[in-house]
Amino acid sequence: MEKIQKILDDHVYSNNIPGISISVTNDENTLSLQSGNTSIQSKKPLSKDDCFQIGSLTKMFIATTILTLKDRGDLHLDQYAVDFLKDTPVPATITIRQLLQHRSGLEDYIIQEHNEKALVAWGLTDVKLPPEFLVQKAVDATDNDQSDDCYAYSNTNYIILGMIIEKITGRSVSEVLDLLFTQPLGLKNTSLPQAPVSLSTNGHSRLTDDLSEETGELKELSVYNPSVPWTAGAMTSTPEEINMWLHALMTGKLLKDSSLKEMIDFSFTSEETEKYGLGIAQFHVADEVCAIGHHGGIQGYESLALYFPEENLYLTVLINQMPSGIGDIVEELYNALVTKEQAQS
C-alpha cells in the first residue's frame, strides 16, 4: 500500500495534479487510496466517497443497458435505430450495433458549433440542449457517403442510444440506470444527473473550453451541465463504485453470457493499442498486457477503469484535472500492483 500511495503522491505533488482517487479490487478485496484535494481553492483532502465526473466511462453503462433490453427481447442489435426513433434526425440506415461499435459514420456532435461556440463548450453553461438538437447538428455535418461501417469514435452514437433507451422504457435514462444498477448493487454515489450539479470535487482544466488546445492557465470548474454529454459522458461516481459495477459486469451478474460475449468481441480501431467491442474497449497496458474497460475525459476530469483478466484485477483511477497523463499513471500503478502480487505468491 505504501508503494501505491507514493506513486499517487508523486504525481500529485511533482506534476501539480489537484487530486487522484483510485480503487483496486482483487479476489473480492478492495483497496481505496487518494492523494491531493477536492479543489485547489478549498484544499480539502479527497476521501474515497468523493464523486467525480467519469466522462465516457458512461458508455459502458449505456451499452450494458442496451444489451439488457436485448436480453429482455425489447430490441435486437441489427435492428435500425430509426425503428424506435421515428420523426427524429437519426438516419434510417444505422443499426444499434453500429452505434454501440462506433461504426455509424456519424460525425461527433461535440465539435459542431452552435452560436459560434463548439457544443462541448456549452457544457460550461446552464443552457439545456435536447438530444435531438445534438443529433441534428451531427447529422447536418455528416457526409452521406461516410457510413461505410468503419470505426470512428463519435459521442453522437451514444446520445442516440440514450434516446432509444427512453423510448423503449418510457423512463428517463437516469431512472433506468438507477433501477438496473445503482439500486441492485448498492451504488450510493453513482448517477446520471438530469440538471447542472456541483460535486464534492471540482474539475480543473488546462484546455480551452472547446477542448481543442492546451493553455498555460489552470481553470477550476465547479458546475457542469449534463445535458451536453448526457448518455455519452455525463455520469458521476467514485472509483470504488466503478470497480463494483465493472466486477458485476465481468462476472456475469448484469448480462446473459451470450450478451457479455458479444460485448467483449473486440475489433481493431484506428489505434494500435486499442480494440473496441460494444461500449467497451481492450487496451494494451505495460508491455502488451491486455485490459478491458474504458477511458473518459470531460472538462476538468479524466478517468480510466480497467479489468485485467489474467490477474483478476480491477483498477479504476479518477482525476479531477484534464489533461492529467492518466495512462502513464495507470501503467505505473499496474506495474507496482503486479510486482507486489508476484512477490507475495
In short:
By secondary structure, the protein is of the alpha+beta class.
CATH topology title: Beta-lactamase
Mean pLDDT, rounded to whole units?
94
Using only C-alpha atoms, the radius of gyration works out to: 19 Å
Termini Cα gap: 16 Å
- What is the CATH architecture descriptor? 3-Layer(aba) Sandwich
Poorly predicted runs are 341-345
The CATH top-level class label = Alpha Beta
**CATH H-level homologous superfamily name:** DD-peptidase/beta-lactamase superfamily
Structural overview:
The structure is a single chain. This protein is 33% helix and 21% strand. The longest helix is centred in the last third of the chain and has 19 residues, at 326-344. The chain has an eight-stranded antiparallel beta sheet with strand order 2-1-14-13-12-11-10-9, sandwiched between helices. Strands 3-8 form a two-stranded antiparallel sheet. Strands 4-5 form a two-stranded antiparallel ribbon. The chain has ten helices and 14 strands. The chain is of the alpha+beta class and 345 residues long. Helix 1 runs antiparallel to helix 10, helix 2 (58-71) crosses helix 5 and helix 4 (131-141) crosses helix 5 (156-169). The two termini are 16 Å apart. The protein has a single domain (2-344), classed as Beta-lactamase, CATH 3.40.710. Residues 341-345 have low confidence and may be disordered.
Key descriptive features of the protein:
345 residues; Beta-lactamase; 8-stranded antiparallel β-sheet; two-stranded antiparallel ribbon; 10 helices; 14 strands
